[in-house]
Every structure is written in structure tokens, then in C-alpha cells.
Amino acid sequence: MNSDSQLKVDIWSDYVCPFCYLQLSIFEQLQREYGTRITVQWHAFELRPEPLATLDPGADYLRASWLREVYPMAEKRNVLMKLPPVQPRSRAVLEAAAFAKAQGKFDEFHIEAFRSFFEFGRDIGDISELLDLGSRAGLDRQALSSALSNHHYTEQIVADEGLANELGLRGVPAFLIRRADQPLSEATVLNGAMSIGPFKREIDRLCI
After folding, report:
1. What is the mean pLDDT of the segment spanning 138-150?
2. Distance between CA 202 and CA 182 in Å, rounded?
């Protein structure tokens, strides 16, 4: 943890969640404004893990949801995105993100994963696509391939999701904000794609 940080922010997110991507720009604003006063920890959350069925990318309800909610918010936040032609499971990309974090390349991988899916419609559940994605983020292709094929980070993903369940988190994005000396169980929980206002109010309240 940064020695001068006052707050911890734990974030549960999934790379196939459009609102997680939309919230990224808001969180980047917070990081620019508060800098080292906040320490961030990202956690994995699969919206549709096995054996749940994945979404039908051509379903009318999905297109309607994007027209009603996603596209208007994306336009307002100046985020380029389109409804992906595929709806993959996210376990592999979450494991790849954990590998990237261990290699000091999380930030690069994080944004590249979101952009690959929501801007370019690539199948981020496909291993070959993940290896290409990792290469673009500066990761060693062979090392990433080994980590994924041997499931080196599966336990970490399961642990993140187990912690989310213990905390009663049922959807993402979920932000848990607390003072550095507080346990996670006492954090304030903010859910969904929200404006920057509620985050700033909570951060300022805790910094007093």
C-alpha cells in the first residue's frame, strides 16, 4: 500500500460487463484527482460462470438494453463502444489479467481487454485472442500461454468471487471504499455505473 494513502478502494469487475467499461472513465478521473491518497485493488467477478448459459449476442432484449442504456451513457461519457458479436465466458480473461498484474502490466492489459471486446468485438474468451491481446499489452506470449493452460491463477479468481459472495455482492461494477485502517467488511459499497459525484462525496467524507 502507498505509505501516504488514506483510503482503500476495492473494485469487483468483469470484462464482459459494459457498465464496468463505462465506469472506467469515472474511476480514472478519481485517480487523477486524488492520486496516492487512494490505493486500488481490482477483483475478479464472472457474471456468467459455468454452468450458467452465456447471453445470446443476437437477442432482441440485449439490443434493446444497449439502445436504452448502454449507448446513451457511452455517448455522454465519450466512450467508443458497440454491442459485441460474441458473448464469451470471462474466466480465461480474468486469469490473464491476474497474470498481467503479477508481471506489472495490469493497467495496460486491463484497458486493452475492455477495448478489444467493446470496441472491436473480439472474442476475449478465446485463448489465441487472449495471447494476441497480452502481446499488445506487453506480456510475454509463451509465459501467458503457460499460465492459462496450467490454470496458475484459477485459485485467485475463485478467491475473489468467494470474497464477493461473503460481502453480499451480486453484480458489477461494485466499489468498496474505506479508510486504510478499516476492515473490508466496514467499507461503503457503491454499485453500478454512477456519476463521479457519489464517489467524491464518500471519499471526501472519509478523508475528513
Report:
1. 98
2. 14
Give tens-digit pLDDT for 59-100: 999 999 999 999 999 999 999 999 999 999 999 999 999 999
User: Any idea which residue has 474511476 for its cell?
Assistant: 27
Contacts of 197 by beta carbon, 8 Å cutoff, 6+ apart: none
DSSP, collapsed to helix, strand or coil, labels residue 86 as coil
* Residue ranges of domains in the chain: 7-207
SS3 191: strand
- Helical (H) or strand (E) element with 205: helix 196-207
Q: Name the amino acid, one letter, at 89.
A: R
Taking domain 7-207, whether its CATH number is 3.40.30.10 is answered by: yes
User: Residue 182 is placed in which grid cell?
Assistant: 478499516
Sequential DSSP letters for 124-174: TTSHHHHHHHHHHTT--HHHHHHHHHTTTTHHHHHHHHHHHHHTT--SSSE
C-alpha–C-alpha distance, residues 108 and 123, integer Å: 18
Its pTM stands at 0.94
Residues 170-202 as b or e (16 or more Cβ within 10 Å = b): eebbbbbbbeeeeeeeebeebeebeeeeebeeb
pLDDT tens profile 102-118: 999 999 999 999 999 99
What's the whole-number average pLDDT of the chain? 95
Give helix 127-136 / helix 106-118 axis angle, nearest 10°. Answer: 130
